[in-house]
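Hi there, hope your week has been kind to you so far. It would help a lot if you went through both lines with me. No rush at all, and the record is pasted right below:

***
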Amino acid sequence: MQTKPARVRILDAAHELMLTVGLARATTKEIARAAGCSEAALYKYFDSKEELFVRVLTERLPRLTPLLSGLAAEPGQGTLAGNLTEIARQAALFYEQSFPIAASLYAETQLKRRHDEALRAIGSGPHLPIQGLDAYLRAEQAAGRVRADADTYAAASLLLGACAQRAFAYDATETGARPPVDEFATRIAHTLVGGISVTDTPGAPRP
């Protein structure tokens, strides 16, 4: 006897299959079978596999987007370094768990293109966290806690790019171990806030 609601079972099954066989091979038919329901029942809750993928990311993985939205809505709370540390920690965990799901798409160019088109159609995509962090940094800039001449988009790209790279860049090392997430997040945030140059460099290019 099924004890969980059908929607929850579908999300659980999709999450497990996407992790084990990859997004490209996890079909809605297989997800429905694993959830103990029909494929027609799956489509009662989700319009497409792409929507299901987005819901897995938002409901089963670390909550990066709500964190960014909340901070952008109320700038000036906590410390800038503390907030960026928590963003980096959540982002590192998010990419660590989502990279194995999405990586299989990159082996199939046409499928990747269709997937990207479907994400655009529902207003989603991997660019949104960068935009969300940029919005937060611009809000802090307006509040006077980020330098007026700082390139917030570049800063967002640097932080999230480092977090995404942590998901796969260490597999070939001797131990195959990623840097511990708390230490990694603290170091990334500290370096971003402090910068690395001993002097300011005027006239740096902006997008």
Notes: The two ends are 57 Å apart (CA to CA).
